Structures are given as structure tokens and as C-alpha cells.
Amino acid sequence: MHAMTAKRVFIFLIAVFSMSWLVGCSHVERAPNDRPGYLYYHKPLPEAARSLDEARLAGKDKECPAEFKAASDMVDNAFETYIACHTQEGIDMAREAIGKIKALCPAKPVAAVKPEPLPEPVPAPTPAPTPPPPAPVVEPVKITLEDIHFDFDRATLTNAAVVILNRDIQTLKDNPGVMVQIEGHTCAHGSDDYNMALGERRANAVKEFLAHQGIASDRMTTISYGETRLAMPEIPTPHNKNSTEAKANRRVHFEVIVK
């Protein structure tokens, strides 16, 4: 009888230990590969490390290097504090670092340039009645949008680009049946992958600007060609990143599609 009771108590204790272990591990996560120290950490620390890696892949370490380094240092300090047995302080630092990473490189507002008002039309005199003219021959509509260019390693619209885009916007508003493919291009400096991502950011910056000025999103698509379609042949060297060829290649081009 005593043996049966002891066995039941032992099984009960094992069950309680297993439940507490499962509940206790629900707020921890395996350590990132590049973060030695512990095998498991509380979730905010691995989340902070992942957020930093995602920001680096998005090019924010180059777009705003000082802010990115400050966030990176905070993630490192969070892990060091945690390993030094200041658990809650390390968790709080990791959460604060996540907030700083999400706020990196905010988009700068672009001032809208209002077009100058058109002069009032002068009414023409009423002509004498004439026979109706023959039906005109309808020629295909030829619509061209101007390209814009960017500074080296930037996806921010310049003042000159904004002026050109306002002319393009008016053309799109005057032709509501026109759709456009926004193509992002780069010069030959930098790696293929980085330039492909940079071209995408440039195309998205233009699409966002056009959308804010009243062009419907369903009239626009974006694509990045990176450095695969150079406007001018270019040999990338450290001394010619601002050459005529490089500047010509850092652009957004519009492919007009008429319904």
C-alpha cells in the first residue's frame, strides 16, 4: 500500500515538473548563431538581433550609418548585460533597441510644388458656318514621361527630380487611361544584390510620391533592374563614381502603357 502511494506521488511530481518546464520555456528562444553566451535567451534579445539583421539587409546601415551603429551598440549592450546576470535590464535594453531599429531612416517629407496657374483662355470669334470636315485620322497617342536621376547610393528625391515628377504627374492626370511601369536603375558601383535592392527603393520612392499627388496605385507597377540595364557604358572605379556615365545610370525610367 505504501509502495503504491509513493509511486503515485512520484508520478505527480514528474507531471508538475514537466508542466512548469513547458510554461517556463514559453518566453525564451534559442540564441542567434552569432551571439555566444547562453543557449537560450528571453525572446526580446533574439528579436532585437533579427530586427538589426533585417535593417542591415534593407540597406539602413548605409542610409543612416550613425543611427544604425547606435542601435547596433544597444543590441550588443543588451546581450552583454543579460550575460552579466542583469536579466531584466538586458531585456529592457533589447526592447528599447527594437524600437530604435524600427524608427531608423524615416522618410523625409517632400514639399509639393504647385504648378503655376494657366492664363485665362481668350474666347475666339464665332466662325461662319462651314461644311463639316471629313473625319480625322486618329493617330496613336504618343506619351513620354521624363526620367529622373539620383545622387550616389541614395533613393531620396532631389529638388530637380521633384520638378520633373510634377510635370510627369500632370501628364498622367491629363491621360487617365495611361498606366506606367516604374523602373529603378543604378550605376555599376557596388554589388549586384545591393544595387538590385537600391533600384527597388528608388522605384518605390517615386511610386509613393506619385500616389501622394493623386495618381491611383493600380495605375503603377514597380520593377528594379539594378545595374543590369546601364544607360551608358561604365567602368566602376573609386575615382569615377560621379562621372557623367555613372550619373546617367542612377535613374528611374517610366515605361508608359496605353490601354
Structure description:
The protein is an alpha+beta fold. The chain has 2 domains: 24-102, no CATH class; 148-258, OmpA-like domain (60s Ribosomal Protein L30, Chain: A), CATH 3.30.1330.60. Helices cover 46% and strands 12% of the residues. It has helices at 2-24, 44-57, 60-63, 65-83, 87-102, 159-174, 192-212, 244-249, and strands at residues 28-30, 40-42, 148-149, 178-185, 220-226, 251-258. Helix 7 links the parallel strand 4 and strand 5 (220-226). Helix 2 packs antiparallel against helix 4 (65-83), helix 2 (44-57) runs parallel beside helix 5 (87-102) and helix 4 packs antiparallel against helix 5. It is elongated.
Instruction: Enter the CATH topology name of the largest domain.
Output: 60s Ribosomal Protein L30, Chain: A
CATH superfamily of the largest domain, called what? OmpA-like domain
N-to-C order of helices and strands: HEEHHHHEHEHEHE
Percentage of helical residues?
40-55%
Distance between the termini: 89 Å
Average pLDDT level: 83
Question: Major sheet: order of its strands?
Answer: 3-6-4-5
Number of helices: 8
How large is the radius of gyration?
A: 30 Å
Low-confidence stretches at least 5 residues in length (pLDDT < 50)?
Answer: 12-24
What's the short story on this structure?
The protein is an alpha+beta fold and 259 residues long. The chain has helices at 2-24, 44-57, 60-63, 65-83, 87-102, 159-174, 192-212, 244-249, and strands spanning 28-30, 40-42, 148-149, 178-185, 220-226, 251-258. The chain has a 4-stranded mixed sheet. It has a two-stranded antiparallel ribbon with strand order 1-2.
